[in-house]
Write a structure and sequence with these properties.
CATH superfamily of the largest domain: NAD(P)-binding Rossmann-like Domain
CATH class of the largest domain: Alpha Beta
Order of helices and strands: EHEHEHEHEEHHHHEHHEHEHEHEHHEH
Shape: globular
InterPro entries: Capsule_polysaccharide_synth
Organism: Temperatibacter marinus
Strand content: 5-15%
Pfam families: Capsule_synth
Number of strands: 12
Protein name: Capsule polysaccharide biosynthesis protein
Largest sheet: 7 strands, mixed
CATH architecture of the largest domain: 3-Layer(aba) Sandwich
Radius of gyration: 22 Å
Distance between the termini: 9 Å
Number of domains: 3
């Protein structure tokens, strides 16, 4: 008879995915524990044991240590490794030799999720040690996915509706986004509205690019509160990054050059940089050469781009796939493929963008990335299938007798 294992789920992706994961843990004959940190978490919680942590943030480490001992926890699963509660959980797991599976959106998308033991992105074992056991013997194939913005918005509204009305029950909670609650719920609604209202401007940009003959520098912006900005970037904010880019572009611009800044789709309802971009462009006398888009087609942009400029967005991987010279400012899983300040100064890159590595190195890296870090799946569609895939790697590390 298989020994029952105790698996602790912390915060998951927005929506009911961790409910499905708890069900699959149960289906394998094991015990699912869930700790909820706020009313939104509790709304989507399922498991054999569901508890609410209502203490102050500084009490979390001692609480988690005691819970692990009392419940004989064998493994921890979390989404978003840089959230305060998850940073503590990773530290506790390491000290207690308890495996911590860190989930994230796929380094390669769509059709993949990221699943790594101990950390993601700048904390990825693949980046830190380079010696990582593979999830797969061969390169996995992505699952087919459908658009999920509508359901994510719906789940977000429910989550923050619960958060707003019952947040008084979790007074010590620290959210990874500032201003959580009713304000964030409204911003999810506004994100849907803005998705419709930006089409005219985006279409205008695409028409302009079709006839453009000069160089195009493409800068995909990141979510304003993304841990990639906070922990793995030389910039303190997206605003600082925009200011830096426009200043550098103005100083190095050649005749016919354009700079396109693309807003991150998950930050659509939360931030808008048009006023800042216009102000900076006017100050540097490049207003006619700066474009700011939201839903512009990524593949179409990259087919015309001279270079991609990014802090550490996974769009950089897509750009490299399309043979677009890419400059990386922060720490990223693919930093050995992109140009950085260690290989080429940014001024030199702007003057003459070039790829750092031949394409065979890119393909070798992607194969290794897929085998070591990625699972076929999606948190917002085909959730059960994705949960079962996660269970398969738990079997190797935790659930085996």
């Amino acid at each position: 008879m298989t020994e029952k294992k105790n698996i602790l789920l912390l915060q998951g992706p927005l929506g009911p995915f961790f409910e499905d994961l708890a069900d699959e843990i149960n289906a394998q004959g094991h015990v699912a524990h869930r700790i909820a940190f706020n009313p939104g978490d509790r709304c989507y919680a399922r498991g054999d044991y569901i508890v609410c942590f209502r203490g102050a943030a500084e009490e979390w480490q001692a609480y988690l240590r005691q819970y692990i001992e009392d419940r004989a926890i064998d493994g921890i699963i979390l989404y978003g490794e840089s959230r305060h509660y998850h940073q503590v959980a990773r530290l506790v797991g390491e000290k207690k030799s308890i495996p911590v599976l860190c989930l994230e959106e796929g380094y390669v998308r769509p059709g993949f999720i990221t699943a790594e033991w101990g950390g993601n992105n700048g904390n990825s074992p693949m980046l830190v040690s380079g010696e990582v056991a593979c999830h797969h013997d061969q390169d996995p194939k992505p699952i087919s996915v459908v658009p999920t913005f509508a359901r994510r918005t719906f789940w977000g509204i429910i989550y923050y509706h619960m958060f707003f009305y019952f947040q008084g029950l979790f007074k010590g909670y620290i959210h990874h986004r500032p201003g959580a609650g009713f304000g964030e719920m409204c911003k999810w609604v506004w994100a849907g509205v803005r998705k419709l209202t930006v089409k005219t401007n985006d279409n205008k940009i695409m028409r302009q690019l079709v006839s453009h003959q000069g160089r195009l520098f493409f800068a995909p912006l990141q979510v304003s509160v993304d841990s990639q900005i906070i922990y793995h970037s030389p910039f303190d904010s997206v605003e600082e990054y925009i200011s830096f880019l426009i200043g550098k572009f103005a100083a190095s611009r050649q005749d016919g050059d354009l700079l396109l800044l693309k807003h991150h789709p998950m930050d659509r309802g939360f931030k808008h940089y048009a006023a800042l971009i216009k102000k900076l462009a006017q100050e540097h006398h490049v207003e006619a050469f700066i474009l700011y888009g939201f839903e512009v087609d990524l593949e179409a942009i990259l087919s015309r781009a001279t270079a991609c400029l990014t802090i550490n967005s996974t769009v950089g991987l897509v750009a490299l796939r399309e043979k677009v010279p890419t400059y990386l400012f922060g720490t990223a899983i693919y930093q050995d493929l992109a140009q950085t300040n260690e290989t080429l100064s940014f001024d030199e890159f702007m003057a003459a963008p070039v790829l750092r590595e031949p394409m065979k190195e890119y393909h070798s890296f992607i194969s290794r990335l897929k085998r070591q870090c990625l699972l076929p799946g999606d948190y917002y569609c085909k959730r059960r299938e994705t949960a079962r895939t996660i269970i398969s790697i738990l079997q190797e590390r935790i659930l085996q007798p």
